[in-house]
Design brief:
Helix content is 85%, strand content 0%. With 254 residues, it is mostly helical. It contains five helices and no strands.
């Protein structure tokens, strides 16, 4: 049992500091865990959105390449179609390794299916363009536009899925931030309660005994023989009372 008044006060303050340190460490750990997990998901979402932008740009270039091919600029048109195809294939491969949202693999599968229809049609039109009249080229190009818009729609759906994922992660971040703040809030409440208890402790074991000692000295008269401050604890204040009584005895002896 602690008897030293200094030890009691010091241990009380150390306990308060320990509570605050533990709460601070818990909050930091929680924030770090939340930040790391959400950052990973959001990075994947952003990467997927970036790949869909590449796909849309390449799809538009492939459509333009077909148009160039049909109006007679075959070499440039063919190069544009091949370059766009390579870009989309690469973007799809990256998207397939970057799945974070529910059913995202199905969205990618749909892109592959719809783009394959469009690209197959583009190659067929390019291969048969020599036998087509200008009017037939215009008609078949317009028909191919339906495949183009369907493929583009499937890509936009994947983009929207990941954008919604970012919004969800933002909301989740807010919720998890509140949760991460709970240890700090609890620690503040505990610190306030502990500070009140510490105030009671100091009053009960330090201030009040001193007041009793002062009152005892004020009410002392020689016939009493000794001061009785009614201090029950064995600490420095009790020692001070005993030493005062010893001093009184020495004065009487003289």
């Amino acid at each position: 049992m602690l008897r030293s008044l200094r030890a009691k006060i010091f241990s009380s303050f150390m306990l308060l500091v320990l509570i605050l340190i533990i709460a601070g460490v818990m909050s930091i750990i929680e924030f770090d865990k939340v930040g790391a997990s959400i950052k990973k998901v959001m990075d994947n979402n952003y990467k997927s959105i970036e790949q869909t932008k590449y796909m849309i740009d390449a799809l538009e270039r492939e459509d333009s390449g077909l148009l160039m091919y049909l109006i007679g600029n075959r070499e440039a048109g063919s190069q544009t179609i091949d370059s766009a195809y390579s870009t989309i294939e690469n973007a799809i491969q990256i998207a397939q390794t970057n799945i974070t949202e529910k059913d995202e693999d199905k969205y990618i599968t749909n892109i592959i299916k719809e783009y394959d229809k469009f690209h197959t049609s583009v190659k067929q039109i390019a291969d048969t363009s020599d036998t087509l009249t200008s009017e037939e080229k215009s008609i078949i190009y317009l028909k191919n536009q339906q495949l183009y818009f369907t493929a583009k729609k499937s890509i936009n759906e994947l983009m929207q899925l990941n954008q919604n994922g970012i919004y969800k992660q933002t909301d989740l971040m807010k919720e998890n931030s509140k949760r991460a703040m709970m240890p700090a809030i609890v620690s503040i409440v505990v610190a306030i309660v502990f500070a009140l208890l510490l105030n009671f402790f100091i009053s009960e074991y330090f201030i009040n005994p001193i007041h009793r000692l002062i009152d005892g000295m004020k009410s002392y008269y020689p016939e009493m023989g000794r001061i009785d401050a009614k201090i029950s604890l064995k600490d420095e204040i009790k020692t001070l009372e005993d030493e005062i009584n010893n001093l009184i005895v020495r004065f009487k002896v003289k």
